[in-house]
């Protein structure tokens, strides 16, 4: 059965003003339903079946929103905070009307894919520990990440609180070794060599607090930068700059709703 709404509530929901402002607009004939001007702000309409216009503009009604954000550094994954800038502060006012919230959390200094939605059912499915939804990260790690680490991550590593992680897939992308000139200079000056850094991709199937950083700490290495590339079937748009966002396509929404993780 199609949803029914009072016309003043519908218009307020879509950002056309407060209920009192909309009531005045209705009285002066700015609102029409199916081409006929209405004068009752309490009129019940079916948005999915009727055409509502405000001052000649068609009202495109929706009650859910799905946004892909390329989260930048320095903002927190929350809807509000008294001191810190949040991911919601990055949204245009019209995209805040439906009250989206971040699905899961990225650390303040972590960048990359973050889904924002007001679809609580979908959020629950993606975050449920029983679902084991894949999350892939790119990290620059201080230290020589090697095949021993690949094996250790595949078997599960023990974190600082004693928790043993689920098997994770670690892929070595390349390593940024000290240049010969840097090494020679360091030796001549009696200094230690610059540290080795490794670029990796890591896919985990759970979401413990600071998990990626703690996994590398468990094998004696330190994450320098961290970026989330994907969550389940949703992959970060390579053309989306940090701090920017876009709505998901219908196909992306469909894929997310159809996805049940490896724990199905």
From TrEMBL:
CDD domains assigned to the protein according to its UniProt record, in alphabetical order: PseudoU_synth_RsuA (cd02553), S4 (cd00165)
Single GO cellular component term: cytosol
GO BP terms in the entry: enzyme-directed rRNA pseudouridine synthesis
Record-level Gene Ontology MF annotations: RNA binding; rRNA pseudouridine synthase activity
Gene3D superfamilies referenced in this protein's UniProt entry, alphabetically: Alpha-L RNA-binding motif, Pseudouridine synthase I, catalytic domain, N-terminal subdomain, RNA-binding S4 domain
Superkingdom per UniProt: Bacteria
Name of one Pfam family that matches: PseudoU_synth_2
Keyword tags: Isomerase, RNA-binding
Keyword DNA damage attributed: no
Top-tier EC class: isomerase
Transmembrane segments: none
Keyword check for Glycoprotein: no
EC number(s) on file: 5.4.99.-
UniProt feature coiled coil, ranges: none
Domain (RNA-binding S4): residue spans on this chain: 5-65
Similarity-based family: Belongs to the pseudouridine synthase RsuA family.
NCBIfam families: pseudouridine synthase
Name by which UniProt lists this protein: Pseudouridine synthase
């Amino acid at each position: 059965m199609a949803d029914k709404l009072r016309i003043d509530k519908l218009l307020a929901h879509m950002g056309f003003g407060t209920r009192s402002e909309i009531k005045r607009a209705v009285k002066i004939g700015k609102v029409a339903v199916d081409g006929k001007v209405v004068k009752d702000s309490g009129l019940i309409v079916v948005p999915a079946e009727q055409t509502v216009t405000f001052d000649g503009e068609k009202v495109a009604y929706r009650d859910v929103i799905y946004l892909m954000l390329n989260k930048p550094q320095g903002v927190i994954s929350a809807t509000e905070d008294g001191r810190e800038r949040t991911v919601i502060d990055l949204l245009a006012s019209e995209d805040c009307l439906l009250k989206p919230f971040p699905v899961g959390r990225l650390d303040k200094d972590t960048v990359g894919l973050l889904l924002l939605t007001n679809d609580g059912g979908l959020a629950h499915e993606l975050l449920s520990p029983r679902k084991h939804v894949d999350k892939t990260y790119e990290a620059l790690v201080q230290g020589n990440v090697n095949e021993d680490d690949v094996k250790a991550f595949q078997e599960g590593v023990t974190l600082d609180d004693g928790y043993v992680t689920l098997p994770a897939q670690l892929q070595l992308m390349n390593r940024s070794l000290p240049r010969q000139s840097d090494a020679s200079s360091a030796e001549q000056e009696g200094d230690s060599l610059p540290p080795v850094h490794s670029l990796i991709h890591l896919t985990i199937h759970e979401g413990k607090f600071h998990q990626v950083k703690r996994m590398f700490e468990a094998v004696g290495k330190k994450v320098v930068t961290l970026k989330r590339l994907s969550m389940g079937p949703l992959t970060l748009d390579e053309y989306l700059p940090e701090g920017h966002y876009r709505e998901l396509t219908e196909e992306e929404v469909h894929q997310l709703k159809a996805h049940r993780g490896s724990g199905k």
